[in-house]
Automatic annotation (TrEMBL):
NCBIfam families: Por_Secre_tail
Protein's name in the database: Por secretion system C-terminal sorting domain-containing protein
InterPro entries noted in UniProt: DUF1565 (IPR011459), Endo/exonu/phosph_ase_sf (IPR036691), Endo/exonuclease/phosphatase (IPR005135), PbH1 (IPR006626), Pectin_lyas_fold (IPR012334), Pectin_lyase_fold/virulence (IPR011050), Secre_tail (IPR026444)
Organism of derivation: Bacteroides nordii CL02T12C05
GO molecular function, one term: catalytic activity
Domain Endonuclease/exonuclease/phosphatase stretches: 31-284
UniProt-listed SMART domains: PbH1 (SM00710)
Length: 865
């Protein structure tokens, strides 16, 4: 026992010496010892030296002897354990909350920020929950049933200097993979919105290793891993923090982290002091970090206007003329506003010639399309890789792009970019780099809103977008992006590990994109994919899939809901493995346990062909929907009028697990290879079904093929109008309310990463009927009983404008169930009922960016500035 005591007391002395040494030269800077400590909950299962009564004093001594100024504590039970900690640590103030209530403090297991009362003033405190509604104590996603996860925060002022910073203590779930990924997302959104540009720390037991990319890479996009950036290297060969009471178990899993922003990290260490005992005070090593605050900078916004005078400083009154100049003048997490206009990529010291690109070296939000006064969005900002301005496309032949930039935009590793109101055009990745001609996103996350990606070419993957991290697109258009490999419009990469990203494409339009596989989009390994309310038209693949879903190593979940696929083509060349080719609309080659939920889509008039020496190959099974592997759930779709040179199928081919279907329209029994349900509607042949579809849909029939007519029928993208509610003698408005439930559909139809809700809207955003007369397909026919017919256009009843920290909602009607969501789907403000007139909403806690205002029956977007 004496050996342990001497050994670890020496470690404590060494730690304090290194901390003091690291502050030499920082005479005018206050350094702080901060960190986190999972003290393990009090339980009768822990006996002997492990019992709380026998270790509580050593937990407190760890905090005192190692001179923590602030420490975040996990797993402190309300009641006696909480009282013991306060009794043993009288010099510390506690900011605390429990997980079992959003309104009553200290119910259940507590997270707490402990700070030296003599050193800090508490300015503000709060908490939020890691769930679909962070204001409520809920179990969301696949969170373990016994633990409601949450984060506690404190706004502190250093008494000596007056410097202000924020401290967050969190605890992610220990079982649910989605819960950890989404909990990380909520944390990063909340840290950014609550702390603004003040220095901040978030720490605690994240129950995640660094190879959980949706955790580690997303945190790294906005904050720094203190272990990684410490000026003094971490002295241990391994960095495990889960020690299981063993002081020498340094090779365990690293679960506990201290993330910082706006701070310098001088030292980083784990504490394995036993105080002469045979075990550590807890089953986790505490983490202790010595930091100092960087100077606070209030202004983190830059402005760009190509028509401004030279020599601007990036302010609103004197904007930069060049977007890269603005980027170079920003810090991580800053915001740039760009006036409407035509911009080209520019050379820099690092990126010359065709390597010229808009280089994003740290996380940014960039909003384009503004007027010259930067008061409102009046259009889009064009950013082009066509430096010479000589690109031409005539009869499908592209000329003049030989000198174009390889990448119009490049997002570097560990960076996140939100890009809004832009047009990205003219990238040509055909040289020493071959991927991501429009946007090469090598970083953690790419969020696009109201962005056009057009006229980009690549000899490799992803002509429009190559995304190594998460890809989230809303209200975007992808036009004429051509890849010689996979992913014409976009390609999501996969690093071969299980703990990967989720992706979402919502309200997007894809046209004239080309690739070998995934002419519109190619998804490699992922956890969840949501493709909802999109339109795909005139895209061409030479192997398979307008949308190609891939990843056989691990199980995933995919939902395709309220999409329109028309006039897309697979034009394959006969050779080996012809049976794997197909999917003129959807192609899937996934793990057998992966689910593919295809719900309320309109998939009509698509073509799949495979020829060898001018003759159709007999082993080609290409259909509009081609499931090579995976478990399909196919409900409420119009999948008809699709042609194929296959002698086997044209609408649906399933070589995966048994398909579950219901309430679909198919051309005929011989145009599918699945067993239809009793509720499925089948025509007698493809030819006769095309005639029936011609009567049902706004369309033309040309040389025996149906050509659906796309138009703006309401909503952000073109759709195919249902002009009559019958497919022959069969009514299509027959869906019972139960047929819209996610649990039955096995699909996440609202992109919440849960299967608890129901399908509310059609592709246009029109509310679906719940009286048993909702329509099959993406377009809801009729609005009987609501005063709105299928031919009526619905004006947006809500207008918004912002004045300072107040967002004003002006509405001509009373709105129910009003909420504000972030672009990643998190509820950030609950308003409930909003009456007519003007309603002020305090949005000071929201980070600058795009948000979705939702109410029963509609949605709109606004930019929080």
């Amino acid at each position: 026992m004496a050996f342990y005591h001497i050994k670890y007391r020496l470690f404590a002395i060494l730690w304090l010496f290194l901390s003091a040494l690291s502050t030499v030269g920082l005479a005018n800077t206050t350094t702080l010892n901060v960190g986190c400590f999972n003290i393990r909950f009090k339980t009768s299962a822990d006996q002997g030296e492990l019992s709380w009564n026998n270790r509580k004093s050593y937990v407190a001594r760890t905090i005192i002897d190692f001179k923590y100024d602030i420490v975040g504590v996990n797993e402190m039970n309300a009641g006696s354990q909480q009282e013991d900690m306060k009794s043993l640590l009288p010099e510390y103030s506690f900011v605390e909350w429990g997980g079992n209530s959003s309104t009553v403090p200290n119910q259940g297991t507590i997270n707490a920020v402990l700070f030296r009362t003599d050193k800090f003033d508490l300015l503000e405190e709060g908490h939020y929950f890691l769930c679909t509604d962070p204001s409520k104590s809920l179990l969301s996603w696949d969170n373990s049933s016994g633990n409601k996860r949450f984060t506690v925060w404190a706004k502190l002022k250093i008494k000596e200097t007056g410097d202000i910073f924020y401290y967050f203590i969190t605890h992610l779930d220990h079982q649910g993979s989605d819960a950890r990924n989404e909990g990380t997302r909520v944390n990063m959104e909340k840290v950014r919105s609550i702390s603004g540009h003040y220095p901040a720390i978030i720490c605690g037991d994240h129950n995640s290793s660094a190879i959980r990319y949706p955790f580690y890479d997303l945190c790294s996009a906005y904050m720094a891993d203190s272990r990684k950036v410490s000026e003094t290297p971490f002295p241990w060969p391994k960095d495990g923090t889960l020690c299981k009471w063993d002081p020498e178990k340094k090779d365990g899993t690293r679960l506990d982290y201290v993330w910082v922003k706006g701070m310098k990290v001088h030292t980083y260490n784990h504490i394995n002091e036993t105080f002469g005992r045979s075990v550590t005070p807890s089953d986790h090593f505490p983490v202790i970090v010595n930091v100092s605050l960087e100077p606070f900078v209030a202004s983190h916004t830059r402005y760009v206007d190509i028509n401004a005078a030279d020599g601007g400083d990036g302010s609103k009154s004197a904007p930069f003329r060049n977007i890269q100049e603005a980027v170079d003048a920003t810090c991580n997490g800053d915001t740039i506003y760009v006036a409407q206009g035509y911009y080209t990529v520019t050379e820099s010291e690092q990126f010359k010639g065709r390597d010229a690109t808009l280089n994003i070296p740290h996380s940014l939000d960039i909003f384009g399309g503004y007027d010259s006064a930067f008061k409102e969005v009046t259009g889009r900002t064009v950013l082009s890789g066509d430096v010479n301005g000589d690109d031409e496309i005539a009869d499908g032949v592209w000329t003049g792009n030989e000198e174009n930039a390889y990448h119009v935009v490049t997002v570097q590793k560990y960076c996140a970019l939100m890009l809004c109101n832009f047009e990205i055009v003219g990238g040509n990745a055909n040289g020493n780099t071959t991927t991501g001609a429009g946007i090469a996103s090598l970083g953690s996350r790419l969020i696009l809103d109201n962005v056009i990606i057009r006229n980009n070419q690549a000899t490799g993957q992803g002509a429009g977008i190559y995304a190594a991290g998460q890809l989230l697109c809303t209200d975007c258009r992808f036009i004429r992006n051509i890849s010689s490999a996979n992913g014409g419009a976009y390609f999501t990469a996969y690093a071969g590990v299980e703990l990967w990203w989720r992706h979402a494409m919502t309200d997007c339009y894809f046209s004239e994109n080309e690739a070998v596989q995934g002419s519109a989009g190619y998804h490699s390994g992922y956890s969840w994919a949501y493709l909802g309310h999109n339109t795909y038209v005139d895209n061409k693949a030479t192997y398979g899939g307008t949308v190609s879903l891939n990843g056989t190593a691990y199980a995933s979940k995919t939902t395709l809901v309220n999409n329109t696929f028309v006039n897309n083509r697979v034009e394959a060349i006969g050779g080996v493995i012809n049976e794997m080719k197909g999917g003129s609309a959807i192609y899937a080659n996934l793990n057998v346990a992966s689910t593919i939920s295809i719900v309320n889509n309109t998939i009509v008039g698509n073509h799949a062909s495979c020829y060898k020496n001018g003759t159709p190959t007999i082993d080609f099974y290409g259909a509009a929907v081609h499931i090579y592997n995976g478990t399909p759930f196919i409900f409420n779709n119009v999948i008809a009028g699709n042609r194929s040179t296959s002698a086997h199928t044209g609408d649906v081919y399933n070589a995966g697990q048994l398909a579950t279907t219901g309430y679909n329209i198919f051309s005929s029994a011989d145009n599918i290879n699945i067993t239809p349900a009793e509720t499925d509607i089948l025509g007698t042949s493809v030819d006769s079904s095309i005639l029936l579809l011609g009567n049902m849909l706004e369309s033309n029939i040309v040389e025996g093929d149906i050509i659906p007519v796309l138009a703006l029928n309401g909503g952000p993208v073109e759709t195919v109008k249902v002009k009559k509610r019958f497919f022959g003698s069969n009514a299509i408005n027959v869906l019972p309310a139960s047929q819209l439930e996610e649990k039955l559909l096995k699909g996440d139809v609202d992109n919440t990463i849960e299967l608890r809700n129901k399908l509310i809207f059609d592709q246009r955003g029109v509310e679906r009927l719940t009286d048993g007369t909702s329509s099959i397909g993406a377009y809801e026919y009729g609005r009987e009983g609501t005063g709105i017919t299928e031919t009526a256009s619905v004006a947006n009843p809500v207008k918004t404008y912002q004045n300072g920290s107040i967002l004003y909602l002006s509405t001509s009607m009373t709105l129910q169930d009003v909420k504000i969501f972030s672009m990643t789907g998190s509820t950030v403000i609950l308003l409930g009922e909003v009456t007519t007139g003007e309603t002020p909403v305090n949005v000071s806690r929201l980070y600058p960016g795009v948000y979705i205002l939702s109410w029963k029956g509609g949605t709109s977007r606004f930019i929080k500035r």
